[in-house]
Amino acid sequence: MVKHTPRPYLRQLAKAIGNQKVKSLPYLFPYTKELSIADAKRFSDIYARKVRTKSLPSESLDIEEALFFHAVAKRTDHLIDTARLLRDSIEHRLKITPQMYLMMLQGIERSKNKDLTSTAVSLYIELHNGRFIMTSEDRNLAASLLLDIFKGCKNITDLLQLKIAYENHMTNSVTDKTLEIRYIGTFIEAFLNSGQYTRAVELFENGFADLATAQFSTNQVLDYLPTKQILLAMSQHGDVEKLTRWLEVVVEANRSLLDYDTWSEFLSLGLSQNHYGLVKLIYSRLIMLELEDVSLDEVMFSNKLEELENKSGVLSSLSEKTLTEILHTLASNGDVNSTLSLIEWHYVHKKLKGEKALTKDLCLDIILSYCYHKDDTPSLENLSIQNVLTTINNFTSKLDAEFVLSYRDICDAMSYRFVRYNVIDSNVETADIRARASFNKAQEFEEDDESKPRKIQNNNVYNSRQGNILKNSEILDGFVRSIVNYIIEEKFTIKTLRIFINCVLHHIMKYQNATGMIVALLAMHQIHPKMASEWLDNELFDIITRTISKSPAAKLVSFEMYRFMKSKSLDISPSHYRDFIASASKGPDNELLQLYLHESLVSPIATQKSQNSPNQTVPTAYNEEEKVERKRYYDIDKRDSG
User: Fold this and answer.
1) pTM score over 0.85
2) What segment(s) does the record annotate as region Disordered (predicted)?
């Protein structure tokens, strides 16, 4: 509680900050933060009583003090009463100074009353139309206050008044050129507040381009424009590409422009949409920024990383789930180097502390990164597929005791890699030659004609230029032979070979037909005649029968497969019988249908299941973890087989 009366308080305030720093009362406002609202209102009421009783002295200093305390107390009603007194009293009117206008504007700005924007514009125009002697500092302050008053404006119509004041007075009177940036920023905010996102972004981009090429630096423009608000709006509208592009500008100019919570929101958006550019930008340019000068040896053999995590709000707040999501985004977009780097920095050092380092999920992310990696210069040797297989073999040979790697875990990623098998399809090449010749010939006759719309190229499976290249049986045969021979020559484990075979046949089952499956199996049989007994596993028989069930012309194949499984005493599961039945049901000839129905009912597996499993939907042979895993695999199979 301030014990002084108004004028002694002002003297004490001026003395505390130094009289040489303050020229007049409007410039005391930044130093009144310690004055409580209660004291400000008490001082304001003293002057308000004088205005009501018309006992306020006509000296300029008394009027300025009254306006000062009304403005500090945010009492716009008292400000207006005092302004009426100045207007109605000739004696007081003669004492009007520019400082009074400034304090009126300060009072309106402090009150945040958007109903007074028109009054503020009128005061600003009146100040410039009056023949007052003002310093450049006064003109800059008046313009700054007017722009502050319009901050958060939602009514575009009100901005027309601001535009008039800006064009007629502000452009010619101010010396602070950053006010031009703030003027544009006021319109951007108004567009955002009124839901006009597209216009706000367009003005922001055009304004930035014009201002940054003028006398302003990039940092200045970003500081004075509502950069944070526009970036948040991009995030809320899911405009990820544009957001990423502007975040790159912010990172280059001044990354501290955005607080940690804002960066976290952008990271969450990138992770939710699996957007590689946004996630990579935030991870590499912000999260890893504090580790630039730290070597991996320091992380692995000291507590350096823990010390940094304790000091850094960014590193310490990264949960295991967030790191996993970042890793998955990097991996699923083929960024091998970043995937391996993240694992090295955040996981490998755990092993030295007795914690489990490489889990199955981490290994899968590494494999995915190789599968989705985009080759800069695709080679005829198809090193990308070989790199994937080498990585898989490293895990199956060294970490087999810790977890089981199934083809189901990577089949989609491997399909992505298969359609990018680098080989020239003669049919596609011939079609390209004909298309180019036809186009050139058409151009000769249509040079003077209006351009006609042409067909847009249809990018096929996974946007591969040649579509699913393995649909060509000749190419499929060569592909299987070359990769299987490579696996044998490199002496990879049998598990690596089975994973590759299963992934190839799963790809054929999903995107091709039984003919492709036969071509692939024949190619492997010619390489190794005993492949059926030595290479194939139960999962592969599941894929084969499922492929047969989808083909309307594979009844004989299904019967041969059934005979083979019977002759080798292989377990024929209920799902196999369902596939056989589905195959036999296609077309008008259904002689095999009765056989499969009968065998499915009398099979030992079906009999044993009916006797041992009281609840047919929950097999008693699996624990809870296995049930979850098998359900996941079942959902994958159901999705892929249609």
Assistant:
1) no
2) 606-626
Three-class SS of 340-382? HHHHHHHCHHHHHHCCCCCCHHHHHHHHHHHHCCCCCCCCCCC
Helix, strand, coil shares of the chain, percent, nearest 5, are 75, 0, 25
Strand (E) or helix (H) holding 33 = none
Rounded-to-integer distance, Cα 103 and Cα 48, Å: 15
Query: By the 8 A CB rule, do 127 and 174 touch?
Result: no
d(CA 353, CA 351): 5
Give the whole-angstrom CA distance, residue 231 versus residue 237: 10
pLDDT at 436: 64
Residue 321's identity, in one-letter code, is: K
Q: What is the 8-class DSSP label of residue 237?
A: T
How many structural domains compose the chain?
A: 2
What's the rounded Cα separation, in Å, for the pair 486 and 367?
18
**Of residues 12, 21, 10, 25, the one with CA closest to residue 141:** 25
pLDDT in tens, 264-309: 899 999 999 999 999 999 988 888 776 666 565 555 555 655 665 5
d(CA 501, CA 520): 9
Q: HSE-up of 559 (CA within 13 Å, CB side)?
A: 11
- pLDDT, one tens digit per residue, over 425-442 is 556 566 666 666 665 555
Range of the structural domain that residue 163 is part of: 1-176
Which domain-ending residue is among 176, 195, 230? 176
Residue where one domain finishes, among candidates 120, 150, 176: 176
Q: Would 116 be classed as within a structural domain?
A: yes
